[in-house]
DUF5518 domain-containing protein
Amino acid sequence: MKTEKVLLTGILFGMILFGIFSLLEIDPTYGGIVGAILVGIIIGKIADKTPVKYAVISIFTYNLIGWVTTFLFTLEGKTILGYGGGVTGVFLGFILIMTIFYSIIGSISAFVTYNMKTDKQD
């Protein structure tokens, strides 16, 4: 599958999961882990080559989009942004670290799924 389609599929699927987990008020840590695993599985199944790279880019992108929209359009996000540089910097640093953590988990999931797919074809 083409690179654009793999990335777009991963980002859209991740955004849908991010929204569902937010609406169901599931803890963001557990929701992020489950979402990263599911997106990694999807990308591992549809990617022709280098699924790890596609998984990292997709998961990082949809998490950044999701968290930015959460901060801009919710009362809690506006409150954190209103406190100033120190609190905002610490919280955004935490979000960045968690996004990298989710990307690693999703890339492992994509790698395993891709290897299982190629083993079946042999």
